[in-house]
Amino acid sequence: MGRKCFAEFIGTAVLVTFGCGVAATNGFGAGYVGIALAFGLVIVAMAYSIGNVSGCHVNPAVSLAMLVNKKLTPKEFLGYVVSQFLGALFGAVVLYFIFLGADTPITELGMGTNGFGSASAAGISVVGAFDAELVLTFVFVFAICGVTSKEEFSNIAGLVIGLTLTLVHLLGLPLTGTSVNPARSFGPALVSALTGCSGGALAISQVWLFIVAPLVGSFLAAYCYKLLDSKK
């Protein structure tokens, strides 16, 4: 259990450092496609690095789906979620120190936090943001449930999951910045607020949505997949 939790900590830290790092800097010209690819490629890299240890959830929403599908015990679920939140915080701190003293500090760039209203590129409302995150997480987790359901899919699972995360980011980035992951949202939001980053106070006040909506979307995805899969 300790190895699994440590793997989840590392994986989530890497996700936040690289994914949110590219989002914060916009890849210095990478745009939405570049940011989407950054998040997707991190998942591919981590899936083939720690997938054999913990399953590479690096996301409380994914762990919730595994709990619903009885692939995690409640004790394992709790350990995974705590490790993921701590990993996200660590990744955000690493990102902060990478840009400490830079010509354009992270306090001006922000940390790739999520938001709605004035914090959304499209200016969507709280209702629109909740709906978007629920649907995006549903699609992401539904794909994970399918590709992890059979042993013969194990060789391609990491690639499929990474590409699906890229897909949901392509739609979600101009809407909410794309969360689909409560830990990924909470870590950067908290560190942004504590360090006085641009938009940090707003991000931490809105982070509740990016915790609740992905969890609801994940639960619905896992439940729907159970209805479709006769073996469950």
Descriptive keywords:
232 residues; mainly alpha; 0% strand
Report a brief summary of the structure.
By secondary structure, the chain is mainly alpha-helical. It is 72% helix and 0% strand.
Structure description:
With 232 residues, this protein is mainly α. It has 10 helices and no strands. The protein has helices at 2-25, 31-54, 60-68, 74-98, 106-109, 126-147, 154-172, 182-195, 200-206, 209-228. It is globular, with a radius of gyration of 16 Å.
Biggest β-sheet: count, sense, barrel? none
Output mean pLDDT.
92
**Given the structure, what is the number of helices?**
10
Query: In terms of structural class, how would the helical and strand content be classed?
Result: mainly alpha
Give the full name of the CATH homologous superfamily. Answer: Glycerol uptake facilitator protein
Along the chain, the helix and strand elements come as HHHHHHHHHH
> What is the name of the CATH class?
Mainly Alpha
The N- and C-terminal alpha carbons lie at a distance of 25 Å
The CATH architecture term is Up-down Bundle
Give the tally of structural domains: 1
Rounded radius of gyration (Å) = 16 Å
Residue share in helix: over 70%
Number of strands: 0
Low-confidence segments, given as residue ranges, are none
